[in-house]
Amino acid sequence: MPGILYITPSYHAGVVEVAGKWVPLYLVALAGATQAAGYPSVIYDAMTKGVGLDEIEARIREVQPDVVAVSMITATTPDGIKIVELAKSIDPRIVTVAGGIHASFMYQDLLSRVPELDMVVIGEGEQTLVELLDALSVGIDLGAVKGLAYRENEQVVRTLPRPYLTDLDNRPMAWDLLDWEDYTYFILPGSRLGAVATSRGCPFGCTFCSQQKFWRRTWRAQSAASVVREVEELHRDYDVDVVLFTDDYPTPDRPRWEEILDRLIAKDLDVKILMETRAADIIRDKDILWKYRKAGIIHIYVGTEAASQTTLDLIRKELTVDESTEALRLCREHGIITETSMILGFPDETRESIDRTIEQAQVYNPDFAHFLAITPWPYADIYKQLEPHIVEHDYRKYNLVDPVIKPQNMSLEEVDQAILDGYRRFYMSKFKEMLEERDDFKRTYMFNAINRMMNHSFIRKKMGMDGGKMPDEIRRIIESDPLTEDALVCPFSRARAKTANS
């Protein structure tokens, strides 16, 4: 039976890596499906391991797979292509497959210009990959496999669309294929970080968003029992004590969401949960926010995106500035750490409009804020509107960090400097406020996070610390705190250490 090797491109932009090393959940789901179907499956998470092409080559030669599969978002596409080319150079008989958001929408481009790429899985991949491996095993016509694109007689052929899975409760997950020691949430020293997708999709139509395009504005969910069972399995079998809910929107169905909270509270797993959701749902749930905290939710990302209602309406966010302000306030009241982002660099952006955005971020007063460059995904609804202003075509820079859009009245360098300014102004005003935080857990958590930010090359640049030296004022504030990061050491890490030393 053909064996399949899943590889993550070794791409690094710098933002999310400040906080942790994240489980490639999509590969766990795909490998779970192919493994359950009887096909030997291996995951090599080159991105998390921080390795390059030499190590990837060694792994391919060791595994000797029949199929190499690479998932691509826009920024990782150039590095994903290198893996495809590498696999073919090692053994031309290896079948190379790409999937993910970018590949799903840009399959025509990829198959036309990358001869080493054999096929693209379009959309949700579990069933498609199993049927593809079946076809390769017994020589079935690929045209019968839904959700696939490939070349035939030098022409790109796309098969019928693959319907979405109707049952998200009973999917096999290949947790056993991960090197669990790789995954940790740096802000909680010694933690082991897992991930659960409680749902797939989002019904909203934000014009800059790739997810609403990929899922075609649909939303499907695991049952509450299934979600909590998955959290419990990660905790029991793999010593996971921090879980990221990876879905964009876990909370639209309030009865289901409250049942998840109630079940987590009843289990009392001592697992900390990170998540994101919409401001409107936090306001809706103001009477049960205490359950969020009791269920283990410690950190919520809320996408505020802009300071101007005009900009929010432009990107069809279906959100008001007042809703963002109120949601963040409610989270603070309940001891939940908040994080948000502001998008900069629209075509009509000016230094004055960016200043207003930075000021609004300070009014929102989340615990953490990010200042991101608008990025024109080549398949997003907003792309045609942004296309005349694109001045950078290297996909590796399509990462929300590097500006690729030139506003009419600003240079690219000025946008980049404005992003630096946003980080500098926001965090300089946050440090002393943190000293006054009465919640020991929250204060230490935030100090650990800022220490990570200050000692990471990307954040040093964004804070204007190119020489690598933390400003004396910030260092004094951090070092003056009587708590140490030991206050946040996760209980399982102590148990693991005790076992290792006994």
Q: Could you describe the 3D structure shown?
A:
By secondary structure, this protein is α/β, with parallel strands linked by helices. It folds into two domains: 4-158, Rossmann fold, CATH 3.40.50; 184-488, Alpha-Beta Horseshoe (pyruvate-formate lyase- activating enzyme). 42% of the residues lie in helices and 15% in strands. It has helices at 25-36, 46-49, 53-63, 77-90, 101-105, 107-113, 126-138, 211-214, 224-238, 254-267, 279-284, 289-294, 309-314, 321-333, 351-364, 383-386, 412-435, 440-454, 457-462, 472-479, 491-501; strands at 4-7, 41-44, 67-71, 95-99, 119-121, 148-152, 155-158, 193-196, 199-201, 219-221, 242-245, 272-277, 297-305, 337-344, 368-373. The strands form three sheets. Strands 2-1-3-4-5-6-7 form a seven-stranded mixed beta sheet, sandwiched between helices. Strands 8-11-12-13-14-15 form a six-stranded parallel beta sheet. Helix 1 (25-36) packs across helix 7, helix 3 packs across helix 4 and helix 15 packs parallel to helix 17. The model is unreliable at 491-502 (pLDDT under 50).
Notable traits:
502 residues, 42% helix, Rossmann fold, 6-stranded parallel beta sheet, 2 domains
Number-wise, the strands total 15
Assign the CATH architecture of the largest domain.
Alpha-Beta Horseshoe
CATH topology of the largest domain: pyruvate-formate lyase- activating enzyme
Could you say how many structural domains there are in total? 2
Task: Tell me what portion of residues adopts beta-strand conformation.
Answer: 5-15%
- In spatial order, strands of the major sheet run 2-1-3-4-5-6-7
User: Which whole number gives the mean pLDDT?
Assistant: 86
N- to C-terminal separation?
A: 42 Å
| Low-confidence residue ranges | 491-502
Radius of gyration: 23 Å
Number of helices: 21
* Main sheet properties: 7 strands, mixed
Assembly category? single chain
CATH class of the largest domain: Alpha Beta
State the fourth-level CATH superfamily of the largest domain.
Answer: tm_1862 like domain
The helical percent reads 40-55%
Sum up the overall morphology in one term: globular
**Structure classification:** alpha/beta
